[in-house]
Hints:
Elements: H1 5-10, E1 16-20, H2 22-31, H3 65-68, E2 76-85, E3 93-106, E4 113-123, E5 129-139, E6 165-170, H4 175-179, H5 192-197, H6 207-223, E7 230-237, E8 246-254, E9 257-264, E10 269-279
Antiparallel strand pairs: 1-3, 2-5, 2-7, 3-4, 4-5, 6-8, 7-10, 8-9, 9-10
Amino acid sequence: MRMTHEQLLALEFPEREFGWDERDTMLYAVGVGLGRESDELPFVFEQGLQALPTQAVVVAWEDTWQDLIGLDVLRVVHGEQRVTLHRPLPARGRVRARLFIQDVFDKGPGRGAILLARTELTDAASGAPLATLLSTVFARGDGGFGGPNGRRPDPHALPTRAADQVRERAVRPEQAAIYRLSGDRNPLHVDPAFAQAAGFDRPILHGLCTWGMAATEVLRAACGLRAQRLRHFEARFTAPVYPGETLHTEIWIDGEVVSFRTTAAERAVVVLDHGKALVASA
């Protein structure tokens, strides 16, 4: 890492403006696996189109900041993702996006660093807040730069009772090739040679695709597929998913708080943990 802790926190990234339209909204929905069931039509058909709340993480996609601060991008892992919606995401819109490094923790030489990156999205016309994104990034090759040894936010504790609902959805073999068209063109997800250089035996699914697929199951279980009811969504990434696998999502519903955990069924490996959603009452 080329910067000190103080320099990272003082960084001022330029505000940028982004736009999306109905085609982008439908493409994102297909990219996270929707369009297979008749009741998913509102997310993939322009008449009465709804935007998935998790689309907020791609409408202003920006990943060049990792290069700007000198991270070893081959050893960067997405640790957690949170999104808070201040109003429903429209199917078409324009936003201004501001990126901030909220905090950085130095785990020491050979142990990496943890960065918390916050993005504020506001409506480009009115300036009204639209969404706040918080990403936890584990930079495995960038420890020992002299920063404090802190900790990332405490994870959400899952209920100890049996899940109220369990849902399964297959990951299509070509899922990563579709999802990457919404912004994240990292070759790790399609190029076998790049994946092997990064330490994987084959390309893996985008973590945010897995995250978005789990969100659709929460939407179905707790919100009746009414996108405007989902106000907050978060989870910790704990293992990669490979295209062609089956996602097994356990869901606990406690009023406006919904907890979840997702497993790659064929390997019995937890891939999303400590999941939490906040939903508005019907």
